[in-house]
Amino acid sequence: MIEQHDPKTSPVACPRCDWLGSIDQAGDESRCPECGTIVCPLRQKGLDSLRAHHRQLLKMGYKVEWTLEQRAAEQERVERFFQRIGQPLRGDQNRDRA
Ligand SMILES: [Zn+2]
Q1: Which of 4, 20, 63, 92 is most buried by a 10 A CB count?
Q2: Separation of CA 94 and ligand 1 centre (Å)
Q3: pTM of the predicted model, to two decimals?
């Protein structure tokens, strides 16, 4: 199945400011729209750790220094990102079709 090469759904992340998006948002030079750093492609492992991060945000022992608002904003940010790249946020870590 060829699906990873659509720029609108190819996930990238900024190594500097943690911006998340798709490669088409980063433009021709693949730079972060927030800080201008060259973005890195996010592979399966990166997506899985973001999923784990999102799950952990619901738990109290994680990021204890964050306020509820910060947690909610971060969850939303991760949710929006997964929506944009057209990938499920939950429950398919074991599905291996790549
Ligand atoms: Zn950035």
Answers
A1: 20
A2: 30
A3: 0.83
- 16 in a domain, yes or no? yes
Distance 42 CA to ligand 1 centre (A): 14
Cα of 18 vs centre of ligand 1, distance in Å, is 6
Q: How far is the CA of 26 from the centre of ligand 1 (A)?
A: 10
Residue with tokens 């499920």: 88
20 bridge partner residues: 13
Residue 4 lies in a domain: no
Please count the structural domains in the chain: 1
Q: Which domain holds residue 69?
A: 11-85
Closest by Cα among 41, 52, 50, 32 to 10: 41
Per-residue pLDDT reduced to its tens digit, 39-85: 999 999 999 999 999 999 988 899 999 999 999 999 999 999 999 99
